[in-house]
Amino acid sequence: MTSAELATLAQREREKQQTFRCRLLCCASTPCLSSGGIGVQKELEAGIKEHALDATVAVIATGCMGPCSRGPVVTVQEQGQPDVIYEAVTPELAERILTKHVLQGQPLHAQTLPAEMPFLAKQQKIVLANSGLIDPERIEEYVARAGYQALDKALQEMTPEEVCDTIVRSGLRGRGGAGYPTGLKWNLVRKAVGDKKYVVANGDEGDPGAYMDRALMESDPHRVLEGMAIAGYAVGADQGFVYVRGEYPIAAQRLEKAIRAAERRGLLGSRILDSNFNFRIDVRIGAGAFVCGEETALMQSIMGRRGQPVTRPPYPAQSGLWGKPTLINNVETYGNIAPIVAQGAEWFAAIGTAQSKGTKIFALAGKVANTGLIEVPMGITLREIVFDIGGGIPNGLTFKAAQTGGPSGGCIPATYLDTLMDYESLKTLGSIMGSGGLIVMDDQSCMVDVAKFFMEFCADESCGKCVPCRAGTVQMHRILERVTNGSATLADLETLRDLCALVRDTSLCGLGQSAPNPVLSTLHYFFDEYEAHIQERRCPAGICTFNEVPVWELAERLRQPVAAS
Amino acid sequence: MPERPTTRPRPTPGNTATPLAQRGPAARPAPPAQHPSSDNRFKLIDRTLKRFQYQQDALIEVLHTAQEAFGFLADDLLLYIARQLKLPPSWVYGVATFYHFFSLKPQGEHSCIVCMGTACYVKQAAEILAALCKAHGIEAGQTTPDRRLSVNTARCLGSCGLAPVLVLDGETVGRATPHSALAQVQTLLATVKTEAAAMPQPITESEL
User: Fold this and answer.
1) One domain for residues A396 and A525
2) Distances from the Cα of B173 to the Cαs of A521, B161, B178, in angstroms?
3) Which of A540, B118, B126, B175 is the most buried (most CB within 10 A)?
4) In this structure, is residue A529 part of a structural domain?
5) Are residues A311 and A382 in the same domain?
6) In chain A, which residues have their Cβ closer than 8 Å to the Cβ of B122?
7) Is residue A541 part of a domain?
8) Per the structure, how many domains does chain A have?
């Protein structure tokens, strides 16, 4: 396919879409499907047949629209009218949408989400711009929304150096958690010497409570593929891998389908867009190991081995997959590439804060009224996310903490609600941006219990290669277990702090180095809860039950006469 | 518009760093037309092996196929894969036991997975799990003695908006409570899987 043919394809698809008076977009991502999205879509399709509207109304299964707790979601897109979003659509409501709204032009306002609602109005969609508006299984719809134009621009007008330079100037940082500048990484791989180079997209989103990557891969797979192809051109690679988590079968299927469609059109494969650039992408499916989100472990897993991290240096940029220079970025990072190349580094650098540019997708979940997927500019405050976008805490309870970054992150207490959400501010608070999971907790959550939950997770997911992580996480979990069952002493907390420092400083990979974060941040901000557990044998949230006593008290009890007990 | 022929299937690169070197068309015996056990499910495995051209790097993909076909990875199945890929059995066993997805024990007829991700945890998923385990007299990760039900936990199913989440025989159920979960599992156990549905579909020649 040439550039001209790409433009024709886009034009033809746009004209085809114009022939429909009205498009009904049904969310077909996992949360909406599990709340009955399929039934709604079938009902709409049957209704259209019944009313003989085939030529003027189209039903399209799209990716995630964001308000997951209000699913199934249906958007009615009428020509010349603003989009109307319906929430909690049932087959009966679908029938009424068709007869009232589509046929008679009377929107059912009781069931719609108002456009000025902060959940929708406060978002700024760059990565998720197409998500929820296009059918992820049709490449034409992506092309019609300027898809693959950025790849075309990069191939025809830019040299690899210029592409890398654009990414450097945009200030884009890795969206996987650590926030390493993406452009620097690209330049490292570009300058690395090697006859063969690889590009890897990390879609092993293991953080519990985070599902941004799943949504992106399911809703707009071509965006990820285009970003990877541009990366391949920029660093001189001809083979890419998308590593998808085993728990996300729909994402893997849609990516496979998207790769085949793009190869058929000559947008991937050999001689892409009539240039001399060849690039293939393969999907690799993970098998349920959290540690595979770590880059060196992920590469081991792609090579069919046990997903255990290896020491760095050498960094993947020098010696990655099969010993070749490898560029590895998060799926969401690749999602930012096409808009940056198409609209320029300056446009992107104008969004966000001085150090953190662009937008970030957060998966808002937990005890908050509106849960779902949100994309907001960097530097928004936590208060805006929780109380404006999230709609506050339900049932009249009070906000206690927000947990960011999953098992590698920390808990942010209510006093820091006005913190800006960017890499540096979160780090100062002892948390991390992480992949973007944001779990809101109210005063019914016990922070010691939460720390124990994450430590259990890390102990379970530790790959066992290095001792500090393998043994340290288990010991820390035991202490936390003792705190929550009433058998801990204040001296245990000192041991806990020491262990945290030890595990953080001596572990091999990011999993171990960041495993103490939830404990350290709760010890720092919620020390009174730890004290209440130990000294008063009382759980402020009423979660823990104290059915044990400290060992020294046990000895005391044994000395007492039996009759007394 | 001219459509280009795709080049799949194709080899994945990089045999050089594989644990055991020395492979080649001459060294490899032709895969048996019919597995000695005359079990057609082995043909599914052979198809994946062929798709990846017997590359040792494809071990995880082959294990995925094997688990899909057989439901779990029995010892002789692992040995078969090890022989086909010319890998030491210890290597295959090591990989199969490393990943949570692979099960070396047979699973129950019905499965119930309770999500224990953070969002589900703060919404009391632990209570649901405890109720299910208590009602069926098993621990998480176990199967009932009559092989009717397996109760497992998952790390996060990415449906946090619907927390707490259960997966019953592959179907995601959101906003569960201990009470609703028990009732749904009872309905699940009441439905008897037909023999045909439980077994993988027989493969036709055209598929191979």
Assistant:
1) no
2) 33, 12, 13
3) B118
4) yes
5) no
6) 366-367, 439, 441, 445, 450
7) no
8) 4
Determine the pLDDT at residue A312.
87
Q: Is A517 on the interface with B (CB under 8 A)?
A: no
Residue range A378-432, pLDDT digits in tens: 999 999 999 999 999 998 899 999 999 888 899 999 999 999 999 999 999 988 8
% pLDDT > 70, chain A: 99
The reply to whether B22 falls in a domain is no
Of B102, B158, B174, the CB nearest to A211: B158
**What rounded mean pLDDT belongs to chain B?**
78
**Any idea what the CATH number is for the domain that residue B165 is in?**
3.40.30.10
Structural domain contains residue B105: no
Give per-10-residue mean pLDDT for chain A (565 aa).
Answer: 92 92 87 85 89 87 86 87 88 88 84 85 91 92 93 94 95 88 95 94 88 91 96 95 90 94 94 94 91 92 93 91 95 95 95 92 90 92 93 92 90 93 90 88 91 93 93 96 92 95 94 94 94 92 88 78 57
Q: Do A437 and B61 touch (CB under 8 A)?
A: no
Residues A232, A288 within the same domain? yes
Look at A371 and B63 and tell me if their CB atoms are within 8 Å: no
Concatenated DSSP letters for A471-500? Answer: HHHHHHHHHHHHHHHT---HHHHHHHHHHH
pLDDT digits (tens, 9 = 90+) for A139-192: 999 999 999 999 999 999 999 999 999 999 999 999 987 889 999 999 999 999
Q: Which domain holds residue B86?
A: 41-98
Q: Is residue B13 part of a domain?
A: no
Q: What is the pLDDT of residue A562?
A: 64
Asked if A195 reaches chain B (Cβ–Cβ under 8 Å), the answer is no
A contacts of B162 (beta carbons < 8 Å) = 31, 34-35, 68-69, 71
Which structural domain range is residue A413 located in? 359-442
Residue A549 inside a domain? The answer is no
- Contacts of the segment B92-97: beta carbons below 8 A, 24+ positions apart: B92/B59, B92/B63, B94/A306, B95/A304, B95/A305, B95/A306, B95/B59, B95/B60, B95/B63, B96/B63
Per-position DSSP letters for A371-429, written without gaps between them: -EEEEEETT-BHHIIIIIIS---GGG--EEEEEESGGGSEEEEGGGTT-B-SHHHHHHT
Min distance A129 CA to chain B CA atoms (Å):
20
**Does the beta-carbon distance from A285 to B161 stay under 8 Å?**
no
Tell me the chain A residues in contact with residue B118 when contact means C-beta distances shorter than 8 Å: 208-209, 365-366, 403, 406, 437, 439, 450, 453-454
How many Å apart are CA A164 and CA A231, to the nearest integer? 8
> For the domain that residue B79 is a member of, what is the CATH number?
1.10.10
Here the CATH number for the domain that contains residue A418 is 3.10.20.600
Name the residue in chain B with its Cα closest to that of A462: B98
Pair B126, B148 in one domain: yes
- Distance of residue A14 Cα from the nearest chain B Cα, in angstroms: 17
- Of residues A50, A261, A249, A36, the one with CA closest to residue A135: A261
Q: Quick check: helix, strand or coil at residue B58? A: helix
B197 occurs within a structural domain: no
Q: Is A218 on the interface with B (CB under 8 A)?
A: no
- Please indicate, yes or no, whether residues B185 and B129 belong to a single structural domain of this protein: yes
